[in-house]
Amino acid sequence: MKSVIFDMDEVLVDSTPYHIDSWKIVLKRYGYDLPLEFREKIYGRRGRDIIREIDPAIKEEKIDEIMGFAEEKFREIYRDRVRPVDNVVEFVKHLKNKGYTLALATSASAENVRMILSALGLLSFFNPIVCEKNVRRGKPEPDIYLKVLELLEEKAENCMVLEDSFAGITSAKRASIEVIGVVSTNKRADLEKLLDIVIESFDDLMKEF
Question: What is the model's pTM?
Answer without folding.
Answer: 0.91
